Amino acid sequence: MALSIEQLTTFTTIVKAGSLGRAAALLNMTQPALSRAIKRLEQQLGAELFERHSKGMQLTDIGRAFLPHATSLHVEATQALEEIQALRGAAKGTVRVGAVASIASSILPPAIERTLTKWPGLHFEVFEGVWDLLAASLSKHEIDLALGAEAPDTDEIVAIRDCCWEDTSHVIVSSGHPLRRRRKLTLADTLHEKWTIPPPGTGPHQHVERVFAEQGLGMPDVIVRTRSITVLKSLVVDSGFLSWMAEPMFEPERRAGLIAPLSIAGVDGRRRLVAFRRRRGLLAVPAVKLLDELRRLTPAGSRKR
Fold first, then answer.
1. What is the CATH number for 157?
2. Are 263 and 288 within one domain?
3. Are 79 and 284 in contact (CB under 8 A)?
4. Of 224, 214, 171, 220, nearest to 191 (Cα)?
5. Rounded distance between C-alpha atoms, residue 76 and residue 60, angstroms
């Protein structure tokens, strides 16, 4: 049974939009034409994919089972067309890349600039977030590449280990925080301060756990847990909180005299950052172009230039 790209686009767009009206607007179609198109697909499959309600369209059990296959087929078909365009010397398409804040604020912008210099027909969608959300987005085909802290490969995603960097994280405070006046500061001195870090299961939280455990300490008093980098920085600057953050993420605030790292003996906050891709399927040509430039910005790639 052959399915066209148009059919796959129709189905996945209705799922995302939640209604025929919104999907028709996104696809630049009339609602009756869209309704006929999805009806033809259902007839071809021999099963109803949606339950029609006054408030929208809901997937049937068969529709839910069909969705991951349709999504994967649609992505593969789109990538095939982009690869043909690239082979013809006209690389076009959209690169969807997710990155933790450290890379999003340092490595990724110059990589995008370098890619566009060579392939000006490309477009980019950039998503910033903590690693657990990026890994889920990569598995669900919502992004093509994920850039984050090194982690074990899974059944769904694998690391591209020749595309790697390092950064250093610190305990950070506002420039006027009393701990900055302490001499011979130890990590234990921070235990009873107000802390704000991302929630359990995220890379930064695991990093903090490891650093404190290596000093023979339990976790500090984490009063606010949030995935928002903006909230973390605001609590540090305005409310006297301590946090844990990689250097590129707070560099603008450090230059402005708002945030400073604490000098604490024996705290090694270095980590390895790598690119990840899905285990199965080909990497889309636009994403390959970005990956090439990311590799050139690794320490090994920089030495080759």
1. 3.40.190.10
2. no
3. yes
4. 220
5. 24
Q: Which residues of 29-42 are buried (b: 16+ CB within 10 A; e: fewer)?
A: beeeebbebbeebb
Asked whether 191 and 220 are in contact (CB, 8 A), the reply is yes
Largest CA distance in the chain: 76
Residue with tokens 């095939």: 80
- Whole-number Å distance between alpha carbons of 170 and 45: 56
Q: How far apart are CA 85 and CA 285, in angstroms?
A: 9
**Among candidate residues 128, 91, 126, 127, the one with its CA nearest the CA of residue 112:** 126
Q: Rounded to the nearest 5 degrees, what angle is found at the Cα of 48, between the Cα atoms of 44 and 53?
A: 140
pTM recorded for the entire structure: 0.65
Whole-number Å distance between alpha carbons of 9 and 296: 35
- 117 and 235, same domain (yes or no): no
Look at the chain and count its residues: 305
Per-residue model confidence as pLDDT tens digits over 100-140: 988 998 999 999 999 999 888 889 999 998 888 899 999 98
CATH number at residue 47: 1.10.10.10
CA dist., res. 141 & res. 63, Å (int): 18
Q: What is the spatial distance between Cα 118 and Cα 57, in angstroms, rounded to a whole number?
A: 43
